[in-house]
């Protein structure tokens, strides 16, 4: 999968000579089917047109100084399918936020709800969810690393039991497309993905996903289960996904708005 910090671009279009573009960037838009694609024309001292799609979803064209606005718009329209594919790809990545500090008062997201961390000194080490708080007990000689380990171990344990339960539920839904049994699966910390399906058919799930609401976790599991049938993200794949998760686009948006991927987890 492409790193979302990497610019996706193509630079293979040549434009005929015409009316010169203004020497400052200009915002424009064009329709690809019923979808409007907004883009910026950025005049450049070059002979070919380059179209860039950035991680924030913005589209920028570097256009030759002698290109016409109409020609640039037509090239963008012709590449509409490619542009929308890159936008969907970037939208599927979770945003990144700073590392946890593992101190009292810090917010902890679990199954779509916010809880507060309460750190206590005690005679033993443990972590327990009580009401709206995750209470973490550590020895007086312990440092922040121990508190971090206790929190991560608790989250990982909850993630495993939650994923096991939802996998059983999801294979009932995928039975209609021929996936009736739970495949081999395991948890893996991934910096850029919620889930993955290996070439051998093993499902990988990011433990950080336990922060998401259950319906969003189900979406990720269904997404990966469908890859057991179709490995790529072709139109055929999305038709298959729509059979088992008709509201997958809504759930993907909900997931990426509700949960953020942390650099340290």
TrEMBL record:
Recorded hits in CDD domains, A to Z, give:
M48_yhfN_like
Q: Which InterPro entries match?
A: UTP_pyrophosphatase-like (IPR053136), YgjP-like_metallopeptidase (IPR002725)
> Which lineage do the record's taxonomy fields give for this organism?
Bacteria, Pseudomonadati, Thermodesulfobacteriota, Desulfovibrionia, Desulfovibrionales
What is this protein's record name?
A: M48 family peptidase
Q: Where is the YgjP-like metallopeptidase domain?
A: 47-257
Which Pfam families does this entry report, sorted A to Z? YgjP-like (PF01863)
Indicate the transmembrane segments per the record. Answer: none
